[in-house]
Amino acid sequence: MDTRLYGTLPPLASNTHVENALTLARTGHAIDRSAALLLAEQASLQDLLRAATSVRACEKGTVVTYSRKVFIPLTTLCRDYCGYCTFRKDPGQPGAHFMTPEEVLALAERGRRAGCKEALFSLGDQPERIFPEAREFLRKQGFSRTLDYLAAMCELVLEKTGLLPHSNPGVMDRAALVRLKDSNASVGLMLENVSPRLMRDGLPHANAPDKVPALRLRTIEEAGKLSMAFTTGILIGIGETMEERVDSLFAIRTLHEKYGHIQEVIIQNFRSKPDIPMAAHPEPSLGDMLRTVAVARLILGPQMNVQAPPNLSYDDFPRLLETGINDWGGISPVTRDFINPEAAWPQIVRLQFETESRGFAFRERLAIYPEFVGRSEFLSSPVRDRVARLADKNGYARSAGLAAAN
Fold first, then answer.
1. Residue 44's domain spans which residues?
2. pLDDT of residue 137
């Protein structure tokens, strides 16, 4: 076993200890950190997968969801230099861009015509802090902060197209979250990892000031205080240990237990790309991905929505259904995955076939999950009105014909 991944392993436990931990997890008990590490490091993959699918079935049954979205890359400028990112750009580089309101609206309208119901806004983190070009663009639009410009664009899209915005802009302060709640059905921020070790020289977050774990945890907590449906998750394969993965999942679980606002947890696997500092870094294996997602389901329990992006597992993506996931995430019929441009999303018809052929029910959801749709404190009045027109009686997306009727 490669201890570079797993860190310092505990002494081998007996089969009885492993089986006891599996029994606790399978029967819906909240496992503790020591049990989670025991399972992550010593349980067989098949036992983990069986336990995870059993836990999923307790609350999610056989339903596996996805969101039909249009991906709006508001700006590729970013002050962070993560070792694995191709999305971010410096001014003057090919692809460096700030979208104008006209461009945002045109792209959102393309999504609306294609039957999308979610507008996913992704963007670099606080580019105005280091780039005069970003400050100048924002000044011409009447703003001083990218986060305020983002809020205005979300309001524009909601008003003009009826798509439900979901913003994923990086670290957000309370003021930004308050304004985003006016127009967003949900917001998101990948925790990625709770370990500050990854910010050391030579590691992926060394030049990324917005990847300080405490800052990201604070954003997630502020969203909880404001009753905002929140998406988060971890990124695996960037040099972290299994112990650090488990600690990150427990940090997420702790915040959700306190505020009840985390609507989904994404387990995302690193994929190498030629033009990144980590181009030669090994990708996590499929087995490692399956093991980690299954452990995440056991830590997070039967009620949490657990997602793994299908495009990042390429043709092996149907195997993710064995891990206890109940969501495929946002899939776009209009735009590529700008964060992972080399990895095309599977066509929705193929995703449906692969899901249903394995005995699952394939359902479209909105940018806010069904269990949050009826909780009025999570939605502003304008968003609530639009959700009411898009959601069926169970909180899923209405059929295409009804949704297109506006």
1. 3-57
2. 98
